[in-house]
Amino acid sequence: MARSLAARRAQGRVLNPALVVATFDKLHARVNERFPTSGLAQVCADLALVARETAGRARRLSRPYIGLRLLAALTVVAAIAGQIYAARLVDWSLIGRKVDAPGAAEGLQAAVNLAILAFGALWFLITAEQRLKRRRILNALFELRSFAHVIDMHQLTKDPTIILADGPATASSPARRMSEFELSRYLDYCAEMLALTAKLAALYANQSHDEVVFAAVNEVENLTSNLGRKIWQKIMILSQLKEAAAEDGVSD
To answer: pTM of the entire structure?
Structure first.
């Protein structure tokens, strides 16, 4: 009982990929119901698919690469065997009697070079798993970073001052058919999508102890946070303008 309680508490401190995916699905349903023909709904649908891929990818990356570890173990055995073989080729009695010093030095140099090569290959194999996982995670984080910019592009022309002020449009002005309520919901959906994109990046940090991965995840989180802050500023402006318009109506 105590162990199960501790396990539940531990799970409560870590992002649950299944819950993140479910939240994305719910958000996609909300966006699609409110703006069924919008590009934002399609972006949210794509992100929901990426969320599923991210959950599966993060789960796979948490597992050890057995093939690489077996190869590293075989390299260790081969290196030890090679060192033993090289040591047996050296006539240690000649070294002790200082006979044929140049030949003995060449033998020792060959043994040292063999040891350096063996340990270099061993180090390469030991770090290969980390480097391979890091490359895959960084590629996935680049995809999430691109999604964040796409979301920002969708809200770029959503200007709350134009919606309420209803100023004259120019020939190049974007079409603005949203009401004040619809614009508020649209901006809120964009902010939620950015926040959930950061959570997808955090799923990779949960499965890695690589400082390079942590730095890349922090970059994605900072990017989505900064973009989300701009959206919330628009929402606040919209709310303030609405309140000001209501006060003017009362005073009139």
So the answer is: 0.74
Task: Name the amino acid, one letter, at 194.
Answer: L
Name, in order, each residue with C-beta under 8 angstroms of 186's C-beta and a sequence gap of 6 or more.
34, 35, 38, 40, 155, 158, 178
CA 110 – CA 113 distance, rounded (Å):
5
d(CA 73, CA 79): 10
Q: Closest Cα to residue 106, out of 95, 117, 122? A: 95
Three-state DSSP at 159 gives coil
Do the Cβ atoms of 245 and 164 come closer than 8 Å? yes
Handedness of CA 48, 49, 54, 55 (dihedral sign): positive
Neighbours of 53 (CB within 10 A): 13
Please tell me whether residue 157 adopts helix, strand or coil conformation.
Answer: coil
- 119, 169, 173 from 90: Cα distances, Å: 20, 90, 85
**What gap in Å lies between CA 54 and CA 61, rounded to an integer?**
10
Distance, CA of 88 to CA of 82 (rounded, Å) = 10
Nearest to 200 by CA among 11, 12, 42, 23: 23
- Tens digit of each residue's pLDDT (9 = 90 or more) over 32-85: 999 998 999 999 999 999 999 999 888 887 777 677 667 777 777 776 776 676
Q: Which amino acid is located at 159 in the chain?
A: D
C-alpha 59/C-alpha 36 separation (Å) is 32
